[in-house]
Design a protein that fits this description.
GO cellular component, one term: mitochondrion
Number of helices: 11
Family: Belongs to the PanB family.
GO biological process, one term: pantothenate biosynthetic process
CATH class of the largest domain: Alpha Beta
Order of helices and strands: HEHEHHEHEHEHEHEEHHH
EC number: 2.1.2.11
Number of domains: 2
CATH superfamily of the largest domain: Phosphoenolpyruvate-binding domains
Strand order of the largest sheet: 1-2-3-4-5-6-7-8
Distance between the termini: 54 Å
Largest sheet: 8 strands, parallel, barrel
Structural class: alpha/beta
Strand content: 5-15%
Helix content: 40-55%
Bound molecules: 3-methyl-2-oxobutanoic acid, sodium ion
Subunit structure: Homotetramer.
């Protein structure tokens, strides 16, 4: 079937049906996201730097490595709206740089929207992309690319000032022409309030149930790694536990000469040929 479109996502938004987005970081996770019929969109988030490539922060991943993962996801996803992040360092220095990085991602032929963390500081770049026909997804609240600032890696919008700032950024980004807005790590009351003040869908993560949709990191929701992760994550599976246990079982069976079982896991040979050979 054909990829879901922004139009279809907006139709859900207008109906009041929550939109579901999941990240993907490679070919396999792309296939899994693509195969879940109710899932509306796939985000190739720069969280893959930590989740799939092992960098301690998202700041470290070079654009080319991020691009390689985007290409893998794009080969897998056939039926979903795909949003891709612009990783740290790939767009901030100039409008040209932002267009160049975005165009490289768009040339993969599958990506439908480019996501940029921030607001006023990227005004020119965001409006240029939109003028060039590249839909932009905003991302405000907790901005992981800016954890070095005073705001740190913490929930945002907990004071009147901070909540008002986020609301203003949301309205500004809507005015600039973005199509979707990710709200990360803000109190649910603030995320809901902002959602009611906008006429574009909000996609929340750690922002409660009052946004127009949700996004989760696939590795978090499937429990692909150790640890519980942040409070907002619901772990729907324990793939880490299951995976390690299965590999351990395999290794033990190999040690015990219980795998492979010649009656099951091998190829047959004609007895006559075998007799001749032996
Ligand atoms: O990188 C990412 O996965 C994201 C989502 C958590 C919104 O930006
Ligand atoms: Na991201």
């Amino acid at each position: 079937h054909k990829p879901s479109t922004l139009k279809e996502i907006y139709a859900k938004y207008k109906n009041g049906t929550p939109i579901s987005v999941v990240t993907a970081h490679d070919y396999i996770s792309g296939k899994w996201a693509d195969a879940a019929p109710s899932c509306d969109a796939v985000l190739i988030g720069d969280s893959l730097a930590m989740v799939a490539v092992g960098y301690p922060t998202t700041l470290e991943i070079p654009f080319d490595e991020f691009y390689y993962h985007c290409a893998s996801v794009c080969r897998a996803v056939k039926s979903k709206y795909i949003i891709a992040d612009l990783p740290y360092g790939s767009f901030e220095s100039s409008v040209e740089k932002c267009i160049e990085s975005s165009m490289r991602l768009m040339k993969l032929g599958k990506i439908c929207s480019i996501k940029i963390e921030g607001a006023y500081e990227h005004e020119e770049s965001i409006s240029r992309l939109i003028k060039l026909g590249i839909p932009v997804t905003g991302h405000i609240g907790l901005k992981p690319q800016r954890f070095n600032g005073l705001e740190g890696f913490r929930v945002q919008g907990k004071t009147v000032d901070s909540a008002l700032q986020i609301l203003k950024e949301a309205l500004f980004l809507q005015e600039t022409g973005i199509s979707l807005l990710v709200l990360e790590g803000i109190p649910h009351e603030i995320a809901s309030y902002i959602t009611t003040k906008l006429s574009i869908p909000t996609i929340g993560i750690g922002a409660g149930n009052g946004t127009s949709g949700q996004v989760l990191v696939q590795a978090d929701l499937l429990g692909m790694h150790t640890g519980r992760g942040p409070k907002f994550v619901k772990r729907y599976e324990d793939l880490y536990g299951k995976g390690v246990a299965a590999i351990e079982k395999y290794a033990q069976e190999v040690s015990a000469s219980a795998f492979p079982d010649n009656a099951v896991h091998t190829y047959p040979m004609k007895t006559k040929v075998l007799e001749e050979f032996l």
